[in-house]
């Protein structure tokens, strides 16, 4: 008798399981997508090597109506966020989060955290790697910069580094979504 009861429960679970899986597939999912700030992928590129601090300004494609403004000068580089005609200046916050001298974007990758629902991706944060020097040790360290996307209120919300930096950056971005 006891085994019959367990078999009935197991059979019911097996009947319901596919329905639950289909419902979950229709709900939103938190996912990462990636874009590049490589010069060859930029929408526009202005070289400023003719001025004393040098540098460049590149407008790079983004997702969800955002574009990335990758700027460089005086051996530093960072990303500003552009939504429509509004550009959010993140220089000071990025340099502060860089934690060293001459912080600069360490590679071309930008991770976009967002929600995917019915094939539509809506980003709520970006994550990218920044490198900076340490004047005392003369070594370079890297960390991940996390920016909450909120149109003209987009902001650097923190950084992560170390063995779990990738997972920690995703958690930071995902927590910011709820706020």
Report on the architecture of this protein.
This protein is an alpha+beta fold. It has one domain (28-178). Helices cover 26% and strands 45% of the residues. The model is unreliable at 1-25 (pLDDT under 50).
Can you give me a brief rundown of this structure?
The protein is of the alpha+beta class. It is 26% helix and 45% strand.
Radius of gyration: 22 Å
Largest sheet: 6 strands, antiparallel
Overall number of strands: 11
- Amino-to-carboxy terminus distance: 52 Å
* Class of secondary structure makeup: alpha+beta
Strand content: 35-45%
The total number of structural domains is: 1
Low-confidence stretches: 1-25
**Average pLDDT reading:** 85
Supply database-style keywords.
single chain, 179 residues, alpha+beta, six-stranded antiparallel β-sheet, five-stranded antiparallel β-sheet, 11 strands, 26% helix
Write the layout of secondary structure elements.
Elements lengths: L1 H25 L2 E8 L7 E4 L8 E6 L4 E8 L2 E8 L2 E3 L2 H8 L2 E5 L3 E9 L2 E14 L6 E9 L6 E6 L4 H14 L1
Antiparallel strand pairs: 1-8, 2-3, 3-4, 4-5, 5-6, 7-9, 8-9, 9-10, 10-11
